[in-house]
Amino acid sequence: MTTRDAGSDKRTRVVTRLGDAGQTQVGKGRMLKCAPRVEAYGAVDEANSVIGVLRTAVQKDERLGGWLRLVQIDLFDIGADLSMPGDAGALLRFRPEPVARIEAQLDELNAAQPRIANFLLPTGADMAGAYAHLARAVTRRAERRVVALAQIAGEEVNPEIPRYLNRLSDFLFIMARHLNDDGAKDDVWAPRGQR
User: Fold this and answer.
1) Is residue 100 one of the residues assigned to a domain?
2) What region holds the Cobalamin adenosyltransferase-like domain (predicted)?
3) What is the number of structural domains in the chain?
4) 181 phi-psi bin (left φ>0, alpha ψ -120 to 50, beta other)
5) pLDDT over 90, % of the chain
6) Strand pairing partners for 24?
7) pLDDT band of 194, cuts 50, 70, 90
8) I want to staple 171 with a disulfide (CB 3.0 to 4.6 A). Which of 47, 90, 106, 137 is the partner?
9) pLDDT tens digits for 126-176?
10) What is the C-alpha separation between 183 and 188, in angstroms, rounded?
11) Residue 28 placed within a domain
């Protein structure tokens, strides 16, 4: 996207037609839109969008909303890191501090929750709990895409990124339980013989 300079028209130019042939800008070069690196940061963008839906659903809770806003900023930083491999993106490298922050928030929410003895069905006491489970699943997919990218010879992936995504999916699971009255309204899966 670019901003138009001509005259008083200051709108952002969204349609560039540069991607019509199936390529996109990555760092200082172009890459196929189906390339593993583009898939990885695209999956992170999907997770960020779903977390935006969750953030909207919990907007009356300033603490959770604030935490999720920081997560969205983290995910933009991760996208920038993934899209600028090598020295070109040295200033954009994702740092370890957000991992520690999210671990502390996870522990804070988890302290009020009872232990679970079995798997939980991904649903909610209301839409916010269900959105937290959806965000968790989409974040896990982003993590898998990033891990797959890291397995390709010659592809550079900051090791803080998969760590953060792994921790974020745990955080979203605990948040879903928190939104389900700290586990009181969890829908627990039972094995076939116990249903």
Assistant:
1) yes
2) 15-178
3) 1
4) left
5) 58
6) 31
7) confident
8) 106
9) 999 999 999 999 999 999 999 999 999 889 899 999 999 999 999 999 999
10) 10
11) no
124-133 tens-digit pLDDT? 889 999 999 9
pLDDT digits (tens, 9 = 90+) for 61-85: 999 999 999 999 999 999 999 988 7
Question: Which are the contacts of 110, defined by CB distance < 8 A and separation ≥ 6?
Answer: 174
CA 119-42-127 angle, to 5 degrees, is: 40
Type of residue found at 7: G
Structural domain contains residue 15 = no
CATH at residue 88: 1.20.1200.10
Distances (CA, A) of 185 to 77, 113, 129, 160: 34, 11, 10, 34
User: Residue 87 half-sphere exposure, CB side, CA atoms within 13 Å?
Assistant: 0
Range of the domain at 135: 37-110+121-183
- Contact residues for 165 (Cβ-Cβ < 8 A; gap 6+): 44, 47, 78, 139, 140, 142, 143, 146
Per-residue confidence (pLDDT) for residue 178, from 0 to 100: 95
Question: Would you call 46 helix, strand, or coil by DSSP?
Answer: helix
Amino acid at 113: Q
Cβ neighbour number for residue 13 with a 10 Å cutoff? 11
